[in-house]
Amino acid sequence: MRIRATMIAALALVLPVSVMAQDRPLPAAAAEMSVSPDAAVQGAGSGVRKRRGSMVGYIEDASIRTQVRVRFDAGFGVNSADRAEFFYGKCGCYRGLAGTPLFDPAAPGPGPGILTDLDFQSFRVMGEFALSHRFSVFAEVPFRSIKPQSFVAGTGSFGNQSGLGDVDAGVKLGLVSDDRRDLTVLVRGSFPTGDSMKGLGTDHASLEPAVLYRQDISDRVSIESQFGGWHPIGGSQGPLVSDKKFAGDVLYYGIGPSFDVVRTDTFRFSPVVELVGWHVIN
Predict the structure, then answer these.
(1) Based on the number of CB atoms within 10 Å of its own CB, is 48 exposed (0-12), middle (13-18) or buried (19 or more)?
(2) What is the DSSP code string of 99-125?
(3) 94: left (phi > 0), else alpha (psi -120 to 50), else beta?
(4) Run of H or E including 278
């Protein structure tokens, strides 16, 4: 997989319920479902500036709140999907290399065939529960679909696959939180629930610490960012038997400025540009 800086441009149209949770008090029944701890503190008549809601989708939200998030990702032109075992497990093509130094009967990824081009889609549902205004727990369930486009000639191939991916769970701890900014530490663990033979998971657990930051520049402009690392726990050996690990550590980072083009009492229209990058360390 080519690990490189990627630009993601999105237009965020936030409907009334999510806007109200951040911008003004809700009726009691709706507030029980949608209002965040910070927004509840800053209700009408408090004289305190209302918080501007998070606009990012790929970058993690630095605010601590109870929420449900649904995210759809699509990727194209992936040419090394097993690199560092970040996307899926070591290519199953290594299982077919008997008699060579590269032979690995335990390679957990899809095969046969050496992949040169792959497209994928991912649908993720995340639930977060705020235990206080500074601490929350969360879990995320992904569903993945992969569509191989081409392989090295003569090495075989495998077909489209879809199903449950690797489930994530973790905690968020707010170090700083006020009406204009949030500084939050996130620790996430990933569990090998996806079928690695189908390219739906990595076949190992991982640990992912990160720092998240949100800053409101004005009532209409904010910047959100993240910086973190992904560390595999376990993973395949190789490519040679003498090599320590096929899986490797990955740094990731991102920044997402947004601007309220239209904002009323009933909805908000905010374009956001998310610049996200990854770097394989080893």
Answers:
(1) exposed
(2) TSTT--TT--S--SS-EEEEEEEEEEE
(3) alpha
(4) strand 268-280
